[in-house]
Amino acid sequence: MNNKIAVLASGKGSNLKAILEAVARGDCCAKVEVVICNKADAGALQIAKKAGVPHVYFINPKDYVGREAFDAACSQVIQDADCKLIVLAGYMRILSESFIQTFPQHIINIHPSLLPSFIGADAVGDALRYGVKVSGCTVHIVTKELDSGPILAQSCVPVLIEDDHASLHARIQEKEYEIYPDVIDKLIKDS
Ligand code: GRF
Q1: What CATH number did the domain enclosing 151 receive?
Q2: Would residue 169 show up in a list of annotated catalytic residues for this protein?
């Protein structure tokens, strides 16, 4: 069983941290082999290095002419490291179709809403503005339609009257840290 995964992240990396912690506890059978960030200051880079992830890269989109070329560089790294599952964890870039086709059904994402509600970049803010009373997070397979692939897992949280963006996002993220490592574990065991 190939349990090597590549995690792509752009931000603070708390989902990456949760995955690494679940692996260390023995609750997730993945091996985080590659971490790629498209932002030099992404917290995920430090988290990955501290955890001893073998291949940790900042790949600068400015060094590539266009999305396809950048994604090709990422996919080369992932294939060289023999990763079979690609885990998007706060990765704030649209993937090219050719990248998605290179790893069909093997790219997953976590989104901070109960899809299909509130696709897009500010799902937490959109949920607050809409006034929903329940929100949550969704793990889904990545397809070429944004935030719209088959759903693998969801978890819900209440939206409280006093919530702001930070408090609601924090409540949702607590659920993310539970379901993402679980889904990864299951996908590897089922593969
Ligand atoms: C998460 O809320 C995730 O749902 C969304 O981006 C955020 C990433 O957070 N796609 P972090 O960088 O893992 O802390």
Answers
A1: 3.40.50.170
A2: no
